[in-house]
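Encode chain A's predicted structure.
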Amino acid sequence: MWNNTCANGNLIKPAREWGDLVRAAFPSYRGSRPRMQLWHGTAYAILFYPNFGEEAKQWTNVLHTCLARTDNSQPSFTHTDVP
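Encoded structure for chain A:
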């Protein structure tokens, strides 16, 4: 279901709470999870850029990892690695 608060980048939670939502979606799952990439533009007018930070918190919690690095190797481009 669409949630304006979330879509507008106004729903901020601790990493553990975001991760708990993923784990609650399939509580009996005990397998490994694949590596992933998160892509999020800064000019997109439907899902706002603050959601990237919330996504990163969620999936680093679920995958038990941290953000490895962030660089701005190109103008208007930010690259963040999750190992």
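Helices lie at 4-7, 15-25, 50-62.
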